Amino acid sequence: MTEHVIKWSYSGLKEYVNCPRQYHETRVLKKHQKEPTKQMLYGTEVHKALEDYVGEGKPLLPNYQRFKKQVDALAQIEGEKLTEFEMALGVDKKPCAWDNHWVRGIADLVIKNGDTAYIVDYKTGSNKYPDLKQLQLMALMVFAHFPEIKVAKTALLFVVHEHFVPRDFKRENEEKLWADFQPDLERLKLSFKTDKWQENPTPLCRWCPVKECQFHKE
After folding, report:
1. Rounded CA separation 151/8 (Å)
2. Mind listing the pLDDT tens digit for each residue in 158-211?
3. Residue 191: helix, strand or coil by DSSP?
């Protein structure tokens, strides 16, 4: 029997860790869809506005002018700028077609300058619990796409809170950086193999679209 090759993204893996059942019903069976909240729609609008401003020089609308100072600092960094940059890797961790992926993700902004890449992910939500592991995956994917890059200077930019959370990664540590994802990927692989998708009750249950779950709360 051919071993099941999982396809994953950082958001999908995070959702699985939070609740395997929700992941299975929304991403595998596709029985449920998450309805976009006002916060999600706002985040999408801000991402598009910042992408157009940094990538194409389109003026920011008046209601996004308060973010101008922050993104101007990024726009002034020298180098080739790639906005909403799609990256996909095969199981060999080499670049592949987007729909043929083992893992894939989109970087809000990548700036290439010599052997250094600057990678920024815009956030419009709370800055209380910054998730730096997302930056780790983005750095690894940039290393795979651009062999000349030796250092990835990454950051989460919480634009609403004007909070910049940086973290640097080096190509020489690639093996260890990939290994950090292995335990969760092994768990995901085991769920596919055994077809067991355990519920994991958390405070997030009230927003879960799987309403038939015993732990769902309105």
Report:
1. 24
2. 999 999 999 999 999 999 999 999 999 999 999 999 999 999 998 888 888 898
3. helix
Each domain of the chain, given as residue ranges in start order, spans 36-180
Both tokens of 196, joined, read 């067991």
Distance CA 193, CA 6 (A): 10
Instruction: Name the strand (E) or helix (H) holding 195.
Output: none
Whose tokens are 């990256």? That residue is 87
| Ordered DSSP codes for 34-93 | PPPPHHHHHHHHHHHHHHHHHHH-PPPPGGGGGGHHHHHHHHTS-SEEEEEEEEEE-TTS
Q: Are strands 116-123 and 151-158 parallel, antiparallel or unpaired?
A: parallel
Phi, psi of 187 (to 5 degrees): -65, -45
| pTM confidence score | 0.92
Q: Under CATH, which number does the domain 36-180 receive?
A: 3.40.1350
